[in-house]
Amino acid sequence: MPKSYQRSVWRHVARGGILLSLLQSSAACSGGSTSDPAMDDGAEAIGTVASELTTEIFSSTALARGASKTGVYTATAAGEITFRTSGTGDADLFIKKGAPPTRFAYDAKSEGPTSTEQVKIKVSAGEKIYYLIYGYEASTVSLSVVTPDETAAETVELFPTTTISQGASKTGTYTATTAGELTFRTSGTGDADLFIRKGSAPTRSVFDAKSDTLTSTEQVKITVAAGDTIHYLVYGYKTASVKLVVELPGAANYAATLSLPSLSQDAAFQAFSTAGGGLSTSGRSMKFLIDNRNPAARTTNFMNGNYAVNGVIPSYAKYHYDFAKRRYGIGDSNATFNNTTYFTNDKRFFAGNIQTYKLGDAQSLVYAIQFYPDDVISEGSLLQALQTIKAAFTVPNAKLVFVATGPQQTFGTIRTQAAALGIDLMTIDQVLGNIKYVPLNTGEAWGYLRIFPANVETLRPTDIPVFDDLPLDLSVVAGTITKAYQDINSHVNLKAKERNTPNMVLRDAGPTHPALSPFADRPVHLKVTSEGFTIEATTAEVVEQKLAERLAAPWVPLPVVDDTALRSFDEVCSIAGASCFQFAKAYGGKTQGLGFLVGALGRASSPTSVSAPFGYDLSPRGFGIPVKAYRDFVDAPENATLKAKLGALIAAEKAGSLSPVERNALSAEVQTLFYTGRVPGSLVADVTERIGAVMPAVEKFKFRSSATSEDVPNFNGAGLYDSFSIEPDKVDKPDFSCVIETENDGVATKLKIKPKTVQCGIKAVFASLWNPRAIVERTFGRLDHATAGMGITINPAYGDELANLVLVTRVVGTDAIYGYTLSVQKGENLVTNPIPGTITEFNVASFSDFARPPRFSTTRYAKPTPTDPVMTTTILTEQQMVDIVEVAKKIEISYCKSKPAYYPGGNCNEVWLDVNKPLSLDMEIKLLPYGNYQFKQVR
Q1: H or E element, residue 767
Q2: 241 assigned to some structural domain
Q3: Whole-model pTM?
């Protein structure tokens, strides 16, 4: 791996949704796993001892004669602590509270004739103790601190903040994992009383303990044995908003513990794990590292992903490689560690994670042992790892399974041994296909719950609809729930992310679902998290208030640029560079994107281009009609009626006075005036001539929307506008009028313009700027309708394609895996606007380093049509997927070099390897009938 890519290939930071979230951002990739010069980043407990914790402050470090190493340690608890050095040579130790020591000013010192020194000092919690290690002779030395084993109470949330009406109750149970005294606590507003009882449900008159003060802050204690079931009842003496937690007896101070050699408490798993995971962010995930350098004496480390130093999670709590360096002091390079951990059967370390899932109708979780998708772990090595984890992970009633995340992770020969361990063996597609709840976009919403609404066109931004299948065209709503699985790259899901509205899959959703049915057509507060969802009652006033807050931002004007040229894609961007992006304001995002693809991929006629080895152009030829043509159309005297009607629509929309029915009616009037309007000047003749010059051998064309309200910051406009097939040899009607016809293709409806002339194609694309869904989306995004404009992108029309694809330049929904995601659908069915009842194939292309080709993990197979069965093989061959990913890498590198804001401060040649890049690209690709790839969009 390159020097600036010194990281373990398996990472974990919390994210929401199953392989979702296109715009997850963090810092750009930095160089390597570096040491802090002052080593003042605090310290951690590695495991626990009965009465003390030993914490390594810095590992073995060379000190020249006369040199010093300094830093600061912040005491986590009051008491006497011991600083210890060890090593070779002669290094002396000096410490001081509150200020850096010198060799002559200190609170304590040790300057014996070796590097094994020790000093003690009494401290208060939070006090800063500075240290100085002086090389009296050339030395190699490490420093650790021994602290009292202070324990903190661990709490488990039994239910989050919930509204309980006056006279209503909330009940449940908790099963004790250890013996001792439990403390049940409520907190919140209003007046809720707490009653508990062992073995059976309490009432307000029959209980083992109770607390019924005048507030919702209640507390009761009860002594239990391990396995006891404690029933609770929280009663609303008055309406209350309250949550309930239980405090466990004698729980370890997990927050101050970097790792544990074994895990026997669910509280420890909850403390160490983070929301999300590798190939699924529905649940929680915790990393482990097994030292296999001596197989006869393996050691296990369960890593605390929430361990923080001064509020920051250090790299050694997040990355296996950095953890191994800190825990074991290994001197391996990152490349050596990767090669001997992931890419060999003779493993020095096993590195993976434990991920929770709730499968099918089961109420309890499974704990899945998983390895990096590119890990080549053999079946024999896998069995060794499973045996080690089984012995160390002893959380009561925890069901362990193994989930293969890559196709090379097989388990056919170890089924019997795994069954003897009580571990089921599964593939990732089996797991993800068996999850009922899928958080596609986490967040909160306030609105009216509409279960299976009869008319989608009447939905408002204050509605939270529940659908069987997601409609192809869904306007702005407060949140969405579907019974059928959605593709994460569908336009509707991307819009949910853009708007920050929650979106989830609930496979058993419906009118009788117990979590939904009580709230049908009522105002609710919906909260979608990686671990579950909650719905609670709210009020109409709160719903309206939340919408008003979203719409309180000022209107944002869109650019108006008067460029009149019909520019070919090659003229927009013959060579990739910053200048390629100047045309978006004049031609819209689509023309600019196709121009950039020419600059990045070149033409096959150029021997040095990316296209040349393929023998054909990887991106289409074509040109753009500038947005000024749209404005000239609206301003033309012969279209004065259109301009007046459009002005009235804009004014009413910006005033916020339109109902969905009124907006739909005004939109229909305006669009009809576009269809019957006149294209001024010589535009039709100029476009026809340009078609022949740029694409002389082509007979059918696609006139594609390229709006200025598309692919702009915080608003991509994906799927809002329409494109139309055009045949230039068709003849216009005598009055030049055009009509929109709908064509039903199964459950999908396609729009067609008739006749399919150049003149009608121009007007149809212009008119699509004013469809109701686009209007509402722009309003929600606060884009000023008065400045919106529409350019047109013209390229050859495709037909009978073998597949449609969407590639995203990150593994969507997680930064645990280096790679891309690739959604694929067979035939002409689109990934972005899928036919209801179909399923898109989903692949993860995981990367390891420059020398290794991508490894493909299929997490879901395609269902090409509503009547077809789910496929059992991938649509593309592995070589086709490799081809597409390798081209996409070159596009991303070129984009990065052309637009510095994409990857500020990073090395663009390595951008595809960085999971923390602040942005990502998505590309639309077609596989044509003769096997050619066509990259038709990048944004």
Answers
A1: helix 758-767
A2: yes
A3: 0.67
